[in-house]
């Protein structure tokens, strides 16, 4: 069983382990800042232990790594507080110490606790410094332990916690990438199948629309513009042409009609009853049939069936901050939360649209995509630009 030895007690001969409890009067506490901090010493140097007892509020001591592991298991069973630092005698066997340190680093409860070597009993034959750096976080002489040691331990704790946080962030990113890779593979197969079927079914209708566009006005059947998709990747975005040729050059003249406001910082541009729209174009927009060529974008891998709306480059260039760039983690899509958001869609603000994009980027998964696809048909007939 664990034996509790008071500060004034003489050390026992060859103890299995000891727990030191130090009680100080408040007005005599030399290190008030480290109240309730405990150490764990591994080794036979009782003199170093005595120095540490005077500095800390309590601690554990074990002769070797095997007994240290037994103490750690007992600490867990008895639900006692964990030590704030492991200090290991330099005379201990390095292979045994390395095995113990690997155990500590593998356990989430101990991996953030600094491991320090006590060199107070070391001989002139110092181990390989590179090996020491792999095992220990720092090297000290316990006989010279003072308040600076406490500050050192606090600093090492912060460094280790920051390192662990970065490591966890990397693991989270890798996990997200693996998840996205699986999601993207399944999504890609679904996209190819669905887009292929859609093109075969709607091909006669697309040919009729192309003929109608040609008959009404001169110019190309398709409107091709550069858009930014996932990861700001630029691609050629396809739509049936719904405006007169040269409509893009009139954007500056129509800024005062922008439903999102005419300020320069406004990201999106849309005009209700746009005077540049042709008669066929108005019908195509009201029925969303102008979007049919985007199934070819899906086949080419530029877009997915479900995703965030691909933005013109001048709009995407205004969304490059960390907060807004999250929307570009999702693929560009034919349909998405914009399209199925039926309530007050005509007066949706820029911030609301960006928020919907970010929401989709964070929640995207195959079942969520299927739900959005199921919600899309009721929203297809609309009286505004999508």
From TrEMBL:
<dbReference type="InterPro" id="IPR003362">
    <property type="entry name" value="Bact_transf"/>
</dbReference>
<dbReference type="Pfam" id="PF02397">
    <property type="entry name" value="Bac_transf"/>
</dbReference>
<keyword id="KW-0812">Transmembrane</keyword>
<keyword id="KW-0472">Membrane</keyword>
<keyword id="KW-0808">Transferase</keyword>
<feature type="transmembrane region" description="Helical">
    <location>
        <begin position="189"/>
        <end position="213"/>
    </location>
</feature>
<comment type="similarity">
    <text>Belongs to the bacterial sugar transferase family.</text>
</comment>
<feature type="domain" description="Bacterial sugar transferase">
    <location>
        <begin position="187"/>
        <end position="381"/>
    </location>
</feature>
<protein>
    <submittedName>
        <fullName>Putative glycosyltransferase</fullName>
    </submittedName>
</protein>
<dbReference type="GO" id="GO:0016780">
    <property type="term" value="F:phosphotransferase activity, for other substituted phosphate groups"/>
</dbReference>
<keyword id="KW-1133">Transmembrane helix</keyword>
